[in-house]
Fold these 4 entries.
Entry 1:
Amino acid sequence: MGLRWQPDAATLARYAGREVHFSVSTPRETSIALQTRLTIIQPANNSFLQLSLTDPDPHRAARTLNAIANAYVAKNHDLADARKSVLDSAVAPPLPFKNSAAQLFSMWVAIGIIAAIGVAFAASALEGRVRRERIAGSDWLSLAHAEMKETE
C-alpha cells in the first residue's frame, strides 16, 4: 500500500515552513471509524432512509453523506422494486454553530432576568388581589361580629 499526496499550491503555501503529520489507516479501520459516526434511520412504514454523520468539518460530512447516498443508489439501481434516488443532498450549514462559554453565560443571565421580571410582575398583579381579599374579608368579619353583638 502506498500513499500519494498531491496538494495544490494554496494548500502547500498554507503549510510552508511547518511540520505536517499524517496518519494512515487501513480501509477496514477507516470504515469502522466511519460506521461509529454514521447513523442511518428508516422510519416505520416508510421507504425513505435518513442519513446523518457526525464530523467536526461540516463540508466533509456533507461530501461523505452525498457519496454514500449516491453509491447506495448506484449499487441498488438494478433491484426489481428500485425507484431509488437521492431526494435531498446533504448541505453543510453556511456558518457552523458552536456555543461558547460566554454565549451560554449570556443566555442564562438573560433567562434569569426575564424570569425575575415575570415573577415580579406576577407578584405585583397578585398583591392587589390579596389586599382586596383581606379588606373584603375583614369587612365581612366586622359585619359578622356586629351582627353577633346585635343578637345578644
Entry 2:
Amino acid sequence: MPYRKKSTFKALTKNGHSFEYAVNIHKSMYNSSKHGSTEYSPNFLHYGRSLSTLLDTFDPEVKPLLLNQAYEIEKILSTMRHVYNEVQENLTLKQYKQNFRHAQHHKYRIFNPKDIVYVKSRNAFSPTYSGPYQVVKNVSKVTVLIQNEQDQFSKPVLIHVDRLWKSIPRPAYLETN
C-alpha cells in the first residue's frame, strides 16, 4: 500500500499538482475509508457523518452546513453516543480475538532448578550469550533466580525467561573418565 501511495504522489506531482494537493487527496481517501477494527471511517467518528464530497476536506471555499436547530445537534450527538459504544464493543472483541490467537501459539518456557542456562546480553557490542549459570528456583512463570555456576558464592540474580537459553546436557556416552 505505501508503494501505491508513493506512485500516486509522483503521478499527481508530475501532472502539475502541488505536493500539498496530493497529501490532501490521500488524507481524504484515508479518512473516508472504513477502518478494520472500528468498522467506521475516521470521518464518521470525528464529524458524526460521512463527508459528502472530496472537496469537504481540502477546498477552503466550501463551508460546512451550519446546524442551527437543536434537534439536528441532538440527533448527531445521540448517533455519536451509539457509534462510540459500538466502536468500544468492536475494539473489545478485536482485542479478545487477538489475545486468543496469541494464547494459542504461546508456550511458557519451563526451567527446573539445577538446569544450566546462558543469559542473552543486552549490549550489542558484547558476546550474544554469557554464562553458564544455574537455575536456583522459579519465582514465577516468567522469572527465575539464577546463579553463576563457577562461583557458588555469587549473589543470585532474578531474570526474565526470555533472556535465557537452556543448555542441553551432554550425553553420558560422550563423557570422558
Entry 3:
Amino acid sequence: MMKAVSRTGSKMLGRKQSQQGSTGSASSISATDASGLTDAQRECVNKMKEANPSVDAATVERFAKARDYKFDTCNKLLQEDIKWREKVKPAEIKQSDCPKALPYGAWRSLGVSTGPRELCKHSKVATIWIQVTLWFPSMYDTEEYIRLAVYFCDRVLTKQAEKVIIIFDMSGWSMGLAFHLPKVLALLSVLQDHYVERLEAALLLRTPAIFSASWNVIKGLMNRATAAAVAFLPTNKAKEAEALAKYVNPAVLPAIYGGSVDGASVPCPNIEGEENFTILTKKGW
C-alpha cells in the first residue's frame, strides 16, 4: 500500500515548511521590504514588470516566486504563459468545447471554503472535486482534457477565490488508466506552468496501491512548489475525514468524506455564473 504522506514524503499532515528563495540561506539574506522580499527578489520582480508591462503585478509576483526569483528562468516562464494564453484563450473556453470530458461529472466544484483550517494558509479557497470512477479518458483526446482543466481553473480562480484545493478521489484507478498518463501530465503542466502559485493543495484520497507506478512518473515531473502541495490522506475513513477538515470546511464536503453535502446532488460544473446540467451516468453516447 502507498504510505499516507504529506508534502513530498514528510510526516503525514505535517505543516508546510517555509521555502527559501534563490538568494541564499536565512543567514545570508539581506533586509526585506514591506512585502517580505529581499532587495534581490524585489529587483527581479521590478525587472519582470518592466519586461512585461501588460501583465498585472500579482501575476508577475507569482511567476517570480515560482522560479525562486531567478530572472531569466521566471521571465521565460511568464512569457511562455503569455503566448499560451493568446493561443488557448482560457476565458473563452465554453462547456461546448468539452463535449465528452465534462458531462460525466468527473470534475465538479465544491464552492469556497472559508474560515480557519489548520493546514490551509488562506481563509478563502475554492475546491475542485475530481472522481476517478467518473473519468473516462478514452472517450476524448488530450486537447479536450486540457480545455476541461483550463475551463475549471479559469472559472474558479476568477469567480471564486485566488487559491484552489483539488480533491482527487482515486477510487477506481486501474492499470488501464495508466495508459492515459499524458492527460494527467497535461493537467500537471496547466497547474504548474500556467496557474502558477494558485494551487493551495492537491489531496489524494482512497488511493489504491496500483497507483504507485503511475505516481512515480508523475512526481518526477513536478516542480518543488507543486510537489510540496501534494498530500496522500489516510485510508481509514474517520482519519480521512479528520485530515480533510484541516484543509476544507466540512460544510462544502460531500458526506462520503465526513462533510454535510449530499455528493450525488452536487451538479456539474457547480460554478457561479455557469449553467449546470444533469450528470451522465453511463459510458457511451
Entry 4:
Amino acid sequence: MNLSFTSLLLIAVRAEDGSTMKIHHIAYAVTSIKKSKIKFEDLGFKATEMEPVNDYIRNIKILFMMHDESKTLIELVEPLNDTSPVSNLCKKMHGCASPYHICYEVENLSEALLEFKGKGYLVTQKPAPAVAIEGKNVAFLFQKDVGIIELVERL
C-alpha cells in the first residue's frame, strides 16, 4: 500500500478504549512566522486569525493556517525568546522550518495521559490551557520512536 503524506494525515489513531484520536494539527517550528506564512500561502494555506497569538506560558508565538482544499490545519510556532522549547530546534535546523509535533484530539486528557505513560511515553509538559486553542487543556509527550506529540482535550 503506497500512501501519500496527505493521505497519512487523514488517518485517525484508535485508542485502547476504542475511541478515535483525530489529528488536530501539525506544528512547524519556524524562526519567522511572517516569512513562513507567505510560503505556506503559496501551498494553499490561509491564516485562521489576523495576527499571531503570544503564548507566554510556553514562550512561543503561534499562527494557525488551514489548507483550502484538504482542510488540514497547521500551526506555525516561533520562539518568543531563547527559553522557548522550540528555540533549540530552530538553532539545530540552522533557521530552517521543521515539523515539530503532531497534535491529536482526545476525549479525556487525564485518561489519555495514563494510557500513553503506560506505553512508554514521557510527559514533557503537563496539562495546561492553550491560548491559541480556545483555552483547551493540552499536554506534550515524547517517545523516542515517535518524537513529540501534543494531546488536546475535546470540549
